[in-house]
Hints:
- The protein is elongated, with a radius of gyration of 22 Å.
- Helices cover 40% and strands 29% of the residues.
- By secondary structure, the protein is an alpha+beta fold.
- The chain has three helices and four strands.
- The chain has one domain.
- Strand 1 and strand 2 form a beta hairpin.
- The chain has a four-stranded mixed sheet.
Amino acid sequence: xxxRYMGFDQADGVRAYRxxxxxxxxxxxxxxxxxDLTLFLKYHVGLQEGPxxxxxxxxxxxxxxxxxxxxxxxxxxxxxxxxxxxAEARKAAARxxxxxxxxxxxxx
Length: 108
C-alpha cells in the first residue's frame, strides 16, 4: 500500500492529518491520524515534521490495525525525540577532534 499525504485540519490544539491509502487501481481509502500539538512543543519537534512522523506511525499501525483512525501519542513523540537526541550525540562525538599536539615552543 502506498500512503499519500492529503493535508490536515486543526481544531482546539489537535491536528488531524489525512492520508489516502492506495493499492493498485482500487479506490483510495482515507486514513486520519490525530496529534496533540502540545506534544510537539513538549518534545521540541517542529510541526513540519508532523506529516512524516504520522506517515511512519500509520504505516506501522496498518500492519497490525486495519482501522481508519489512528493517533500520534506521547510515547511516539518521546521515542522520536530520544532517537533524534541520540543521533545528534553520535554526530557530535564523531566531530570531536582527537588529541591535539602543541607546536614546539621555540627558545631564543
